[in-house]
Amino acid sequence: MAEPKKADTLKPRLPRGLVDRRADEIAAQGRMLETIRASFELYGFEALETPFIEYTEALGKFLPDLDRPNEGVFSFQDDDESWLSLRYDLTAPLARHVAENFDALPKPYRSFRNGYVFRNEKPGPGRFRQFMQFDADIVGAASVAADAEICMLMADTLDKLGLAGQYVVKVNNRKVLDGVMEAIGLSGPDKAGQRLTVLRAIDKLDRLGAEGVRLLLGPGRKDESGDFTKGAGLDEAAISRILAYVSFQAAPTGEGDRIAFWDQFFGSWSDVVGDSETGREGIAELHVMMRLCEAAGYGFDRIRADPSVVRGLEYYTGPVYEAELTFPVTNEAGETVRFGSVAGGGRYDGLVGRFRAEPVPATGFSIGVSRLFSALQLTGSPLLQGKAKPGPVVVLVLDRENIADYQRLVALLRAENIRAELYLGGSGMKAQMKYADRRGSPCAIIQGSNEREAGEVQIKDLIEGAKAAEGISSNAEWKAARPAQFSVKEDEMVARVKEVLARHF
Amino acid sequence: MAEPKKADTLKPRLPRGLVDRRADEIAAQGRMLETIRASFELYGFEALETPFIEYTEALGKFLPDLDRPNEGVFSFQDDDESWLSLRYDLTAPLARHVAENFDALPKPYRSFRNGYVFRNEKPGPGRFRQFMQFDADIVGAASVAADAEICMLMADTLDKLGLAGQYVVKVNNRKVLDGVMEAIGLSGPDKAGQRLTVLRAIDKLDRLGAEGVRLLLGPGRKDESGDFTKGAGLDEAAISRILAYVSFQAAPTGEGDRIAFWDQFFGSWSDVVGDSETGREGIAELHVMMRLCEAAGYGFDRIRADPSVVRGLEYYTGPVYEAELTFPVTNEAGETVRFGSVAGGGRYDGLVGRFRAEPVPATGFSIGVSRLFSALQLTGSPLLQGKAKPGPVVVLVLDRENIADYQRLVALLRAENIRAELYLGGSGMKAQMKYADRRGSPCAIIQGSNEREAGEVQIKDLIEGAKAAEGISSNAEWKAARPAQFSVKEDEMVARVKEVLARHF
């Protein structure tokens, strides 16, 4: 191995936006992932795993009009000069997989994927350059019944994670948004940039309120720090129309007929899209989705239409949806806000079609695993705590020349499936006991020369001992009492250790 | 998203040396990984996860005398120009983690890690550019008792995977190899290149036999294809000494005293290392390890000293070990050979020390997950088969305008934890039944207008039906009998589906 370049002693450090994870967090997150997996399987989805590296062109991550990849992805050239990138999400690799294996897959194809994705972006608090997503997608189903299923899956999964009553799945449709744009004269390919500015302005409704969005739709907005964001330059009539549209919040009162409620609610939408065919189609799709969700028992409190949902990605072509956690948290500025989005997605009928002559309809969503994990931590989820697991029984090493004997004691414990280890460091008795404490050991096994000659070992119950220590004030008193420590014959060791474990776990 | 550059329709494909994995393989490998994890935990090891990206210098992967990374790793520059690489193994990231968190970790620190690593090398059959490793390491234990524990862990883990009697853990010590080199005059930093050539020659003993190794130690060797490999250029006396050394194969007969056997076996080694202090130290360490393993009940058939074990990595400083599967397989050339190595490792006392002033002893091993998985497939391991899991119950869609009703039936099944889905495609009845077959459905739910009016559904038992179909010869006969299909009231549907499931799973 080559020597390091920069210094004789390297500084051990991780690049920014990357983190290590220790055993407790891995176990807690594992339980959360397992709950999600079971929920996705119940809906008939099947696991798929794709590699971390793809051709950059398969990810659609080339810069416009340039032969090099977008800076947002980590990229490198293969030995034949073709560009490779670390996957940016789990959707583009699915599209590649489906196109590559089209005839071999059942259609509709329900797939779930779980794994890390990479963003070559500036990291910040809660923003990492490697983070985990958990996705479910249905490919080959053009019906909005598929989108409705995805929304129900989002709701059921959050219920199973113990978040019932603390979330809402908000649904909108890009075609409605397109219809609104058309009605205010923003259609056609030459207006694509302006449309994106409008979508991004609407997307900020939660954060900036109606007045902030009004500025972003019109002349532009200066924030507290003095930074100016260029506006979409719409006239007052257009701005009012958009603000009127996004203010349509569904708020049924009482326990009336919800199907009838939705019929009435969408009745009032048709004005905002005017004569736009696309807009009317979008409203009809959203209406069908709400009827399907209601009929399957997913009420307004769990899944509902919301005109302010936009979703940032450009490739969505129909329904878009977002799961928002509604409980309050305090943000960095000290304000009380809703926890916000933990999952989102939509219909992307063009993505698989990039690889094939015919279009392939598809819809799906992605859970932000780290954000969801933070939410479960905040709500004190019992799922994350799990069942306490004992640390290893530590066999101390008193005479180094008898290490084979100590090793034999360890083997006896392990043979009975008791987590156990030999102390392998070079320190004395006191440090060994400290090590056992640090490892969360339920008990330590001690054998000095006296015990060995008598064919005995000492078992020290560290959990009982810690409790007893609270009531003992002096070292001398401790030595006289030696609470929670007892001698047993070697051939009784395993049975007695099992008793200690049974007492505490 | 930018449009693809090269063609209107992209070819969907993966870069060479990368693969997708489907549900069956993911589940089977998951069971194997779970067995390994439980085995490592029993030994007191704890999970750790590090990110996929590290500073290239932290991996020690700079080319000698050059400021750019080794071609064997995937590398890219960060926005501050520093080089980043995808991890090449799980050992270098552990060394970085331990150095970075030294004071916070218990010592000795027992850690296990599982995940993909990346090699920017030419892929071939069974050689991937992304592959999985499962590692266990003990950091901060200088004693060879730690190396003995690692060897026992390797043996126990293979036992738990159902490979008892089909493996051997072979152990050697780099210091012995160094001693042999010293004895033939190959010591000192200027001979490092020649020593590496000698180690690589010994490493080929299994494949080339003694005569092949003799050529590689001497003038060099031409293989069948005519390619010439340069030799180490040793003289006849040196070659004989090395060949004599690697021929020391431990082969105790009968059930005699194994401790005494090892005493006698190592007695005959001292000659080959001559006066080399290092060599004698290595023999003594290996001897202690064999005594410890024997005392803990790991006999010669499971763990044994073998002078031909070398291990390719340059950073090993003491004991090296390798788990070899001994059952025969047919190689690409049609020859019967042993399956070979599935795991290996050794002591690397210098690796953490690259980051710190004081040395930090460490030892550990790595399982090649894909190779081990292939081995379990070859041996027909029941672990990989697992318990058969039913596909989803498929609710067919006969009248599209009643889709909300079908969705409600699906919701009823899922509420009782029965894996179920709505058919979401656009095809007719026949294609829907074919889809259900393809998904491995235990039964399909069918509701036409007649059944709906009567408040009933048809349950079609697809497993029973497939059996019955074998005894029916004509379509007419089938229609008359309609085996394994029955009507039930809607409110009995869940209970009757449960009966079908209980019958088959």
Over the alpha carbons, how many angstroms does the gyration radius of chain A reach? 30 Å
So what's the overall shape of chain A? Answer: elongated
Mean pLDDT of chain A: 90
Helix vs. strand class of chain A: alpha+beta
Low-confidence blocks of residues of chain A: 1-7
CATH architecture of the domain at 393-504 in chain A: 3-Layer(aba) Sandwich
What features would you highlight for this structure?
homodimer; 505 residues; alpha+beta; Rossmann fold; five-stranded mixed beta sheet; elongated; disordered N terminus
Task: Describe the fold and architecture.
2 copies of one chain form a homodimer. Chain A is an alpha+beta fold and 505 residues long. Chain A has a domain at 393-504: 3-Layer(aba) Sandwich (Rossmann fold), CATH 3.40.50.800. The first copy, chain A, contains 19 helices and 19 strands. Chain A has helices at residues 23-42, 56-59, 91-100, 144-163, 174-183, 192-203, 205-217, 236-246, 258-267, 270-273, 277-295, 369-378, 382-385, 403-415, 429-438, 449-454, 462-469, 475-481, 493-504, and strands spanning 21-22, 46-49, 53-55, 75-77, 83-86, 109-118, 130-139, 167-173, 220-222, 228-230, 303-305, 319-330, 336-347, 362-368, 393-395, 420-422, 443-446, 456-461, 485-489. The first copy, chain A, has an 8-stranded mixed sheet. In chain A, strands 16-15-17-18-19 form a 5-stranded mixed sheet. The longest helix of chain A has 20 residues, at 23-42. Chain A is elongated. The two termini of chain A are 47 Å apart. Mean pLDDT of chain A is 90; it is low at 1-7. Chains A and B meet through β1, α1, β2, β3 and α3 of A and β1, α1, β2, β3 and α2 of B. β2 (46-49) of chain A pairs antiparallel with β1 (21-22) of chain B, so a sheet runs across the interface.
